[in-house]
Amino acid sequence: MSSTFETVANIIAETCDIPRDTIKPESHAIDDLGIDSLDFLDIAFAIDKAFGIKLPLEQWTQEVNDGKASTEQYFVLQNLCARIDDLVAAKGK
Amino acid sequence: MRIEYFQLIDRITDLNFNDLTIRAEANVPATSTIFEGHFPGRPLMPGVLLIETMAQASGWLLIARNRFAKMPFLATVKEAKLRTFVTPGQALIVSAKIMHEGSGFALTEAKIETNGKTVCDADITFRLVDFPQGEFVANMREVAKRIALPMEVAPHG
Fold it and tell me: Do A41 and B103 touch (CB under 8 A)?
């Protein structure tokens, strides 16, 4: 998770011009870091490329809109990184 | 081009689902009220319309790729370079390639050429949303037919 977080935090810092030291594992990408949906597309692209995965953003958005999940589950960075690790692990199977 | 209707692609000449590329013709009209204002005595195709032309070629590629399931909407234009002037009556060749297909978004690289010379190029991001139904999809299918978008080729995925 730690290296995943480093990669994701660096992507966010670079993509959104946010100081790297303000990005913490407990940061909420939207509520704390102020990342909007358009910027998140750039982040998703960079994450997809860096990890060789496809973040299921449509599924996550649907789950949040349907009240089946909270934004914290997907957009707090330590949770996002855990999802990324799961997707990377699933890819290797 | 049906420039007054913002329909800038005239004809799809190639669509390749292996390479994820499209190629199309877009002929700048000889006359238009746009050229009367942009600019009097020196008519030029506006750069934003060249960018829109690249976006529309990319958009048709994405529509064909997902067979009218998802509609691409322009989200981001990066690295747009307008390299030379385009004037009324010029025949343009527009090409685009899908560089990444994410969940609910896609990125393309697109360019326009005339006489073998690159006129402009850009990296474009689209949001992909469920295709609006009813009149919207009916009209888009009509335009697709007019510009000869090949729909008989089954895309991957």
Answer: no
